[in-house]
Amino acid sequence: MGIHISVNPIITIDGDVASIESYVVVIGRVDDPRVVLAGRYEDRLRRVEGEWRFVSRRLERQMRPTT
């Protein structure tokens, strides 16, 4: 099992709608701890009955491992 790390979120809230931009790094298993993916998330959320729910998530890949 690998590790998924999301960092440096920028959160913008406008009423019941929010957007979050953050960077993501995915590291491989313990026996193969290479960076599997690095990129940026663009998330959109909506507040429904007092709880924030994901509407969409877009991943912009900025780095992939070489084979």
How would you describe what is shown here?
There is one protein chain. With 67 residues, the chain is mainly beta. It has one domain: Nuclear Transport Factor 2, Chain: A (Roll), CATH 3.10.450.50. It is built from no helices and 4 strands. It has strands spanning 3-14, 17-27, 35-48, 51-63. A 4-stranded antiparallel β-sheet has the order 1-2-3-4, with no helix packed on it.
Keywords:
67 residues, Nuclear Transport Factor 2, Chain: A
Apparent shape: elongated
**Over all CA atoms, what is the radius of gyration?**
15 Å
- Count the DSSP helices: 0
Binned strand content? over 45%
Number of domains: 1
Overall SS class: mainly beta
CATH topology: Nuclear Transport Factor 2, Chain: A
CATH architecture term: Roll
Q: What distance separates the N and C termini?
A: 20 Å
Q: Numbering strands along the chain, what is their spatial order in the largest sheet? A: 1-2-3-4
Summarize model confidence as the mean pLDDT: 92
Low-confidence stretches: none
CATH domain class name = Alpha Beta
Element order, helices and strands? Answer: EEEE
Quaternary class: single chain
Biggest beta-sheet profile: 4 strands, antiparallel
Summarize the amount of helix as a percent range: under 10%
Tell me how many strands there are: 4
